[in-house]
Amino acid sequence: MQFQRLRLSGFKSFVDATELRIEPGITGIVGPNGCGKSNLLEALRWVMGANSAKAMRAGGMDDVIFAGSGGRSSRNHAEVVLTIDNAERRAPAAYNDSPVLEVVRRIDRGEGSTYRINGREVRARDVHLLFADASTGSNSPALVRQGQISELIAAKPQNRRMILEEAAGVSGLHTRRHEAELR
Ligand code: ATP
Ligand code: MG
User: Fold this and answer.
1) Predicted-complex ipTM score
2) Which positions bind ATP (predicted)?
């Protein structure tokens, strides 16, 4: 699965609709301090289901919504759309009738967030499993936050194991085993 495009609207500093095309190969984002480079990576994690305020550098989840600045008033919702090339049909079987996947996460102030895949409302879990199976989860070692390397070095063995399991692509299996045991 190849990420093709990230679209943001009202997410953190990206109050206006913004689109980032992700071509094959390396995509670099450069800009002065505070211009929103880290916010872009956070938008990617967020649409992939990241649910910790810490990963979003936020106090609460509503903090990802544009809070107002430079005379622009705050927004009441934020939306991020991730377009994925599924030409090789690497997504879970349920989505494999489609060569392109569009994952949408939207948050409304005070109401939490909703997810859609190709226009159909899905659970957070469906989004987690979509990416867990492709070993590209929002905690994937492919996404390295600023300061994360030093955190990794200082991590407890158990936390380090979670990172390794995500890298090996088995964390989705853990989720399903846990659910099977509850039945
Ligand atoms: P650096 O080079 O220092 O790492 P950066 O390009 O990664 O900078 P970010 O951390 O992505 O910059 O962006 C920080 C900016 O985003 C700050 O100006 C901050 O005020 C703004 N910001 C963060 N959350 C929101 C929000 N909810 N509403 C409006 N602006 C926000
Ligand atoms: Mg940064």
Assistant:
1) 0.98
2) 32-39
Domains and CATH numbers, the chain: 2-182 (3.40.50.300)
Nearest CA to 42 out of 70, 74, 20 is that of 20
Taking Cα atoms as reference points, which of 126, 152, 150 lies closest to residue 141? 152
Q: Is 33 annotated as a binding residue?
A: yes
Distance 119 CA to ligand 2 centre (A): 32
Rounded to 5 degrees, φ, ψ at 102 are -120, 110
* Residue 11 and residue 79 in contact, taking contact as beta carbons nearer than 8 Å: yes
DSSP string of 92-159, one letter each residue: -GGGTT-SEEEEEEEEETTTEEEEEETTEEE-HHHHHHHHHHTT--TT-TTS--TTHHHHHHH--HHH
Q: Which ligand is nearest to the CA of 56?
A: 1
**Which candidate, 71, 78, 61, 63, places its Cα nearest to that of 16?**
78
By most ligand atoms within 8 Å of CB, the mutation choice from 12, 42, 143 for ligand 1 is 12
The model carries a pTM of 0.84
